[in-house]
Amino acid sequence: MAGTSIPEIRDFHDVVRLLETHPEWRSDLRRLILTDELLALPQEMAQLASQVSRLTEQVITLTEVTQRVSVDIGRLKGDALEVRYTLRGVPLVTRLLRRPRPVSQEELDTLLEEAESHGLISSTDSEEIILADLVIRGKQKGVDVYLVTEISWGVGTDDVQRAAKRASLLAKTGIPTIPAVAGEWVTPDAQQLAQGLGVWQFTPSRVVSPVS
């Protein structure tokens, strides 16, 4: 450049000092020293990071969808099992009750209305009892007993807790009740909790009494 004096360059350190004095030269020097591939690397890395971010979001979304589908399938299986047990009976329930039969919604409503009118249970109690998956009436030593049953394809601790709670509420009406869970299988945690809460367990091949 006219009027500009360029110092003599003797070694690499002189080059460094020149670049510090003239930072605008650095981009030109990079283009001379670095290959096109290296110069494009920062932009390519940014694009790769963006792709990875989008892929991560897609994986998270897919995982959430898979979980929702799994839950929905579990519910559908549980609903189908509830219908089957209502129509055909809970497997092996005759080991606990004689002449078992499902209590109809109308029969249960009448029982609860009478109990409410006598102040034995509250309306909140009734609403909770009605949510029971299946109530079965049968005989034990000649006495009518109501088996309050929660049904799930895979029985968990929540099912056990609901069965115990709803059977306890129904017992406030003055009729003998037994809590129970029924399904294809019962988780180990649910098995342990059922023993503690006095809940019977029914699967297609096994009946487990809470009394050892």
Notes on the structure:
This protein has 212 residues and is of the alpha/beta class. It is 55% helix and 18% strand. It has helices at residues 12-21, 26-33, 36-88, 105-117, 123-130, 157-171, 188-197, and strands at 98-102, 134-140, 143-151, 154-155, 177-182, 185-186, 200-203, 206-208. A hairpin with a 2-residue loop joins strand 2 (134-140) and strand 3. The longest helix has 53 residues, at 36-88.
Question: What's the layout of helices and strands?
Answer:
Elements: H1 12-21, H2 26-33, H3 36-88, E1 98-102, H4 105-117, H5 123-130, E2 134-140, E3 143-151, E4 154-155, H6 157-171, E5 177-182, E6 185-186, H7 188-197, E7 200-203, E8 206-208
Parallel strand pairs: 3-5, 4-6, 5-7
Antiparallel strand pairs: 1-2, 2-3, 7-8
Helix pairs in contact: 5-6, 6-7
Using brief descriptors, characterize the structure shown.
55% helix, 8 strands, 212 residues, six-stranded mixed β-sheet, alpha/beta
What would the principal axes of the Cα set say about the shape? rod-shaped
**Regions with pLDDT < 50 over 5+ consecutive residues?**
none
How many helices does DSSP assign?
A: 7
Based on CA atoms alone, the radius of gyration comes out at: 36 Å
* Range of strand content: 15-25%
Structural class: alpha/beta
Mean pLDDT: 85
Count of DSSP E strands? Answer: 8
Amino-to-carboxy terminus distance = 100 Å
SSE ordering: HHHEHHEEEHEEHEE
Strand order of the largest sheet: 1-2-3-5-7-8
Largest sheet: 6 strands, mixed
Helix content: 55-70%
